Amino acid sequence: MNFFINQAMGLGNSGVEHAEFYRAERFKQAKLPFRFLFLNLVPELHRAMDRWGLHDSEVLNLWEYLVLGESYLKKGLVHRTKPQKNVMITDNTNTNRKQEFVTDSGMRVIQHFYKGPDKQHPDNPVLQVGISRVELYLERTGERKVMYQVENDTHRGSNVVNIHLFNERGRHLFFRNLYGLHRYFFEKVDRAYHGNSNFIIDRGEFADDVLMQNRIPNSKIVYIVHADQLANRDDPKYPLWNDHYEYMLEHLHQVDRVVTATKLQRDDLLIDDPSARDIVTAIPVGGVRDGITQQSGRKAHRPFRLITASRLAAEKHVDIAIKAVANLHNQGLKINFDIYGQGEEQEKLEKTIKEQHAEEYVHLKGLSHDLENIYPNYDAFVSTSFSEGFGLTYIEALNAGLPVVTFDARFGAQELIQNGVNGYLVNLKRTDDDYNVEQIQVALHKLITGNYSKLQAATSKSVAEFQDQITADKWRKLINGLRTSK
What we know:
The chain is of the alpha/beta class. 30% of the residues lie in helices and 26% in strands. InterPro entries: Glyco_trans_1. This is Glycosyltransferase.
């Protein structure tokens, strides 16, 4: 069985989760079996699965297994329960002390709260309220199945410790921390599917070291690199690693395969270890439907219609695009800019729009699950992200006939955008936003006032190699090759 390992998924997700969803569809296309493994307690897991089109039989959650029992490992969640609303108990100072709720998987979750000094930030004089202990019950029988503590530490943050499993196949089991519990879970799913497991790691925290140390017999490990493996390469001799991939990079030859999203990132990773050439491969984490629609070189709308789509997060720097569009508007160009997505930066972006007096032509459109049908209503796509491991939205936009304007950043933009052919790549200075605004502004001006039809005609042809069947074939070859090679 092929297991996709992640910590959680939700109603809104990052590019990592969307890459997993896309891979699941390609595994179906290649007739490769799979299960999602989620390690965190996710109260709204099945509601989120419904939103993203995952079936109950395709997902295994650690905590649901510990409550629901052995049959869950093979079948997933068989019967859903009507979730019950939160019941919060407070003390006479109106401080939260206990919360209870029932999930749609049939778990009663009881969370106990503490009030005390900030252990993670000792200099903070404000008393904190947080979860100190959690109990999980099987709602159908009222049986307590799990209890654990949440420990806060100045250096290690918040950690799950002292985990008790009650009546786990007739035994009371204890785990000091998540390392041992995750190992127990991985061994259980491996045994449930008769061994020869392929563990495909999407988020390595609490998984990579567990699986690489004392390897489960006959298992294989495939590590997915979703972002730049380096924080920077300013010093070619001593590059600074991305913390998320440090363990993998230090134990590269213990991994059966490392999968990057682009060929450029594969080549870059091999700079630091050329001997890993047979380990590292590139498979796209997104793509387009089979059969490319040739673009005819249509004319742009007037006013020019510009779109972006991403999480509204600081690292996406959407405010740079807003300022560039406002400058163009102030120069007399007729342009509308729609921003799709949601996230913690929404209020900041609303403020930026007001400061630029751009309310009439820049709009926050919210989250959409139908971008495929929205893109054709626009003329071009802009991204101001400083780094994209792949850039799924770039491919979607190009396939819909939209030229892309973005920064010349590692790795997705450099692989997908051909400067002056299907869009424009512009220079980036990470510490100079005024410079970055000007660069995006100049490129958009060139696109709008130049030979737009020529760039538009080249868009979909440029993503032909990213058709779904081609990616499915790459995964079939990789998975089947795990048992015939290293």
